[in-house]
Amino acid sequence: MSAPTILLTGRNGQVGFELQRALAPLGKVVAVGTADCDLADGAALRALVQSVQPALIVNPAAYTAVDKAETDSDKARAVNAVAPGILGEEAAKLGAAVIHYSTDYVYDGRKAGPYTEADATGPQSVYGQTKLDGEQALAAATPQHVVLRTSWVVGAHGGNFAKTMLRLAGEREELKVVADQFGAPTSAALIADVTAHIAHRYLQQGATGFPFGTYHLAAEGETSWHAYAQFVIGEALRHGKALKASPDRVHPIPASAYPTPAQRPTNSRLDTARLRQTFGLHLPPWQDGVRHILQQIL
Ligand SMILES: NC(=O)C1=CN([C@@H]2O[C@H](COP(=O)(O)OP(=O)(O)OC[C@H]3O[C@@H](n4cnc5c(N)ncnc54)[C@H](OP(=O)(O)O)[C@@H]3O)[C@@H](O)[C@H]2O)C=CC1
Ligand SMILES: Cc1cn([C@H]2C[C@H](O)[C@@H](COP(=O)(O)OP(=O)(O)O[C@H]3O[C@@H](C)C(=O)[C@@H](O)[C@H]3O)O2)c(=O)[nH]c1=O
Ligand SMILES: [Mg+2]
């Protein structure tokens, strides 16, 4: 049996970078970035899929600048909402499957407990709305899709909140960070490893009886942006990193005191029972992933 071809988008992003490693043992990975194919160019995207002829498409590419998306909404919509539908249509022509990613920001964040996949969505931002539209466009184009909704992605490669906090803590003695939004930082490496398990099972088993659908994929546990910032700064100091701010100088503030163009959900907690029950995958605590990344970048 010859190795299957896997088309991977967003190769330079946090998750795409880790996927290049994690998918490598499963087949021939054709990894593309913006320079190879602009996902906002539908015709180019169709031509790419038709020339690569993948058995599986993995699509971590996205417009992820949450605040910028509020004003740059046409671009965000093209990449997040339209491109997944095009990938789904082209995959369907080939009999291929698509693994796609979405976000906690599809929810309104007003639920008391963790969200399950069955809960109603209610995006509060352009980013969240375009990501939800992308999920729906993909699902309408092909039943052979897996959507992994994750949260607060953090990786060694690429930009994220943890790196922003390390930079700010190197510049200032005092930081103010939102303490009334809750979620789980999820490492790009964990997302890539879980994806590889799902992809491997699909490539072995094929589409018949495969549990396609939407799954939450977030590290175990929960924190606030504020406690997360304190954790990152504390760990960095333990590693001997010279910083101006210490954890006790990271002050909790309400989201109302940190106005941003896009509204973030108060509750971003994702229940991952469905992923565990379906694929037998147990997700580690968020601190493990963050510590591992800090070891890499410090
Ligand atoms: N980051 C987060 O906190 C979260 C992310 N997610 C979702 O997880 C997935 C992966 O996110 P993550 O890896 O963090 O994202 P990144 O922002 O790190 O990477 C996204 C990648 O998409 C590429 N991209 C953007 N626009 C285009 C375009 N027009 N054409 C081609 N490629 C494009 C970017 O390429 P380039 O570098 O060239 O611009 C970049 O490499 C996304 O679906 C995201 O919505 C879900 C929850 C949280
Ligand atoms: C920089 C900074 C941010 N904040 C707040 C703003 C916001 O409420 C929170 C997080 O800010 P960020 O802009 O880094 O996070 P944001 O870009 O909103 O992160 C989101 O990205 C998208 C792609 C997702 O899908 C989400 O899961 C989530 O990870 O921290 C502070 O309170 N103080 C600060 O100094
Ligand atoms: Mg951001």
Automatic annotation (TrEMBL):
Which gene is annotated as encoding this protein in its UniProt record?
Answer: rmlD
Asked if the Swiss-Prot or TrEMBL record annotates the protein with the keyword NADP, the reply is yes
Pfam families xref list = RmlD_sub_bind
Cofactors demanded by this protein: Mg(2+)
Which EC number(s) does the record attach to this protein? 1.1.1.133
Which reaction is the catalytic activity of this chain?
dTDP-beta-L-rhamnose + NADP(+) = dTDP-4-dehydro-beta-L-rhamnose + NADPH + H(+)
> CDD domains per the record?
dTDP_HR_like_SDR_e
Q: Say which family it is in.
A: Belongs to the dTDP-4-dehydrorhamnose reductase family.
- What keywords is this UniProt entry annotated with? NADP, Oxidoreductase
Question: What is the originating organism of this protein?
Answer: Hydrogenophaga electricum
What broad taxonomic lineage does this protein's source fall under? Bacteria, Pseudomonadati, Pseudomonadota, Betaproteobacteria, Burkholderiales
> What is this protein's function?
Catalyzes the reduction of dTDP-6-deoxy-L-lyxo-4-hexulose to yield dTDP-L-rhamnose.
Q: What is this protein called?
A: dTDP-4-dehydrorhamnose reductase
